[in-house]
Amino acid sequence: MYKEDDAVGFIVFCNRADENGNHWIPALMIDEKHQGRGYGRAAMEQLIELLCDMNATRLMIGHRPQNEAAGGLYESLGFKKVSEEPVDGEIIRLLQIP
Ligand SMILES: CC(C)(COP(=O)(O)OP(=O)(O)OC[C@H]1O[C@@H](n2cnc3c(N)ncnc32)[C@H](O)[C@@H]1OP(=O)(O)O)[C@@H](O)C(=O)NCCC(=O)NCCS
Protein backbone atom coordinates (compact mmCIF):
# COMPACT_ATOMS: atom_id res chain seq x y z
CA MET A 1 0.00 0.00 0.00
CA TYR A 2 1.37 3.37 -0.99
CA LYS A 3 0.73 6.99 -0.11
CA GLU A 4 2.10 8.72 -3.17
CA ASP A 5 5.57 7.10 -3.50
CA ASP A 6 5.84 6.13 0.16
CA ALA A 7 5.13 2.51 1.15
CA VAL A 8 2.93 2.65 4.26
CA GLY A 9 2.31 -1.07 4.68
CA PHE A 10 1.12 -4.31 3.16
CA ILE A 11 -1.72 -6.76 3.34
CA VAL A 12 -1.68 -10.46 2.49
CA PHE A 13 -4.84 -12.35 1.57
CA CYS A 14 -5.88 -15.62 -0.04
CA ASN A 15 -7.78 -15.11 -3.27
CA ARG A 16 -9.15 -18.64 -3.04
CA ALA A 17 -11.23 -20.19 -0.27
CA ASP A 18 -9.87 -23.12 1.71
CA GLU A 19 -11.77 -26.43 1.96
CA ASN A 20 -14.08 -24.88 4.59
CA GLY A 21 -14.98 -21.89 2.42
CA ASN A 22 -12.73 -19.51 4.38
CA HIS A 23 -10.76 -16.71 2.76
CA TRP A 24 -7.83 -16.10 5.11
CA ILE A 25 -6.10 -12.76 5.61
CA PRO A 26 -2.71 -13.84 7.01
CA ALA A 27 -1.13 -10.41 7.46
CA LEU A 28 -1.86 -6.72 7.76
CA MET A 29 1.09 -4.50 8.59
CA ILE A 30 1.28 -0.72 8.69
CA ASP A 31 4.72 0.87 9.06
CA GLU A 32 5.19 2.15 12.61
CA LYS A 33 5.57 5.74 11.51
CA HIS A 34 2.26 5.61 9.61
CA GLN A 35 0.16 3.87 12.27
CA GLY A 36 -2.91 5.48 13.80
CA ARG A 37 -3.73 7.51 10.68
CA GLY A 38 -6.50 5.39 9.25
CA TYR A 39 -4.45 3.35 6.76
CA GLY A 40 -5.15 0.01 8.43
CA ARG A 41 -8.90 0.62 8.44
CA ALA A 42 -8.86 1.90 4.84
CA ALA A 43 -6.89 -1.15 3.69
CA MET A 44 -9.24 -3.57 5.41
CA GLU A 45 -12.34 -1.82 4.05
CA GLN A 46 -10.97 -2.02 0.51
CA LEU A 47 -10.01 -5.67 0.93
CA ILE A 48 -13.47 -6.58 2.27
CA GLU A 49 -15.04 -4.86 -0.75
CA LEU A 50 -12.69 -6.70 -3.11
CA LEU A 51 -13.40 -10.09 -1.52
CA CYS A 52 -17.16 -9.37 -1.57
CA ASP A 53 -16.85 -8.71 -5.31
CA MET A 54 -15.13 -12.11 -5.57
CA ASN A 55 -18.18 -13.68 -3.85
CA ALA A 56 -16.24 -14.57 -0.70
CA THR A 57 -18.56 -15.29 2.23
CA ARG A 58 -16.25 -16.12 5.15
CA LEU A 59 -13.27 -13.85 5.84
CA MET A 60 -10.90 -15.10 8.54
CA ILE A 61 -8.17 -13.20 10.38
CA GLY A 62 -6.05 -13.80 13.47
CA HIS A 63 -4.23 -11.58 15.96
CA ARG A 64 -2.35 -11.91 19.24
CA PRO A 65 -4.72 -11.58 22.24
CA GLN A 66 -2.79 -8.58 23.59
CA ASN A 67 -2.94 -6.72 20.25
CA GLU A 68 -5.72 -4.27 21.14
CA ALA A 69 -5.22 -2.14 18.03
CA ALA A 70 -5.78 -5.11 15.70
CA GLY A 71 -8.59 -6.59 17.82
CA GLY A 72 -10.41 -3.23 18.04
CA LEU A 73 -10.06 -2.61 14.33
CA TYR A 74 -11.29 -6.07 13.30
CA GLU A 75 -14.15 -6.04 15.83
CA SER A 76 -15.34 -2.65 14.55
CA LEU A 77 -15.35 -4.03 11.00
CA GLY A 78 -17.60 -6.90 12.08
CA PHE A 79 -15.05 -9.70 12.60
CA LYS A 80 -16.41 -11.82 15.47
CA LYS A 81 -14.26 -14.05 17.66
CA VAL A 82 -14.57 -17.69 16.59
CA SER A 83 -13.58 -18.70 20.11
CA GLU A 84 -12.46 -16.92 23.27
CA GLU A 85 -9.41 -19.17 23.58
CA PRO A 86 -6.41 -18.45 21.34
CA VAL A 87 -5.52 -21.04 18.69
CA ASP A 88 -1.74 -21.37 18.26
CA GLY A 89 -1.41 -18.10 20.20
CA GLU A 90 -3.90 -16.16 18.12
CA ILE A 91 -7.51 -15.03 18.49
CA ILE A 92 -9.27 -16.09 15.30
CA ARG A 93 -12.04 -13.90 13.94
CA LEU A 94 -14.65 -14.41 11.23
CA LEU A 95 -16.51 -11.87 9.11
CA GLN A 96 -19.55 -13.63 7.69
CA ILE A 97 -20.79 -11.95 4.53
CA PRO A 98 -24.47 -12.61 3.88
C1 LIG B 1 -2.94 -3.00 13.84
C2 LIG B 1 -2.69 -2.09 12.65
C3 LIG B 1 -2.82 -2.87 11.36
C4 LIG B 1 -3.75 -0.96 12.66
O1 LIG B 1 -3.52 -0.09 11.57
P1 LIG B 1 -3.49 1.48 11.77
O2 LIG B 1 -3.35 2.13 10.44
O3 LIG B 1 -2.47 1.83 12.80
O4 LIG B 1 -4.95 1.72 12.39
P2 LIG B 1 -6.00 2.84 12.01
O5 LIG B 1 -5.37 4.21 12.15
O6 LIG B 1 -6.64 2.53 10.69
O7 LIG B 1 -7.06 2.68 13.18
C5 LIG B 1 -8.16 1.78 13.06
C6 LIG B 1 -8.68 1.33 14.39
O8 LIG B 1 -7.65 0.59 15.04
C7 LIG B 1 -7.78 0.73 16.43
N1 LIG B 1 -6.51 1.25 16.94
C8 LIG B 1 -5.51 1.81 16.20
N2 LIG B 1 -4.47 2.06 17.00
C9 LIG B 1 -4.83 1.65 18.24
C10 LIG B 1 -4.15 1.59 19.49
N3 LIG B 1 -2.89 2.04 19.62
N4 LIG B 1 -4.80 1.07 20.56
C11 LIG B 1 -6.07 0.61 20.44
N5 LIG B 1 -6.76 0.63 19.26
C12 LIG B 1 -6.13 1.14 18.20
C13 LIG B 1 -8.91 1.64 16.69
O9 LIG B 1 -10.06 0.83 16.90
C14 LIG B 1 -9.07 2.40 15.40
O10 LIG B 1 -10.42 2.73 15.33
P3 LIG B 1 -10.93 4.17 14.83
O11 LIG B 1 -10.73 4.15 13.34
O12 LIG B 1 -12.37 4.18 15.23
O13 LIG B 1 -10.09 5.21 15.53
C15 LIG B 1 -1.27 -1.43 12.73
O14 LIG B 1 -1.16 -0.72 13.93
C16 LIG B 1 -0.12 -2.41 12.59
O15 LIG B 1 0.30 -2.76 11.47
N6 LIG B 1 0.44 -2.87 13.72
C17 LIG B 1 1.59 -3.77 13.73
C18 LIG B 1 1.31 -5.09 13.04
C19 LIG B 1 0.04 -5.71 13.52
O16 LIG B 1 -0.24 -5.74 14.70
N7 LIG B 1 -0.72 -6.22 12.54
C20 LIG B 1 -1.99 -6.88 12.81
C21 LIG B 1 -1.79 -8.26 13.34
S1 LIG B 1 -2.73 -9.37 12.42
From TrEMBL:
Keywords: Acyltransferase, Transferase. Transmembrane segments: none annotated. Residues 1-98 form the N-acetyltransferase domain. InterPro entries: Acyl_CoA_acyltransferase, GNAT_dom, YpeA/RimI_acetyltransf. The keyword Metal-binding does not apply. GO terms for molecular function: acyltransferase activity, transferring groups other than amino-acyl groups. It comes from the Bacteria. Pfam families: Acetyltransf_1. This is Spermine/spermidine acetyltransferase.
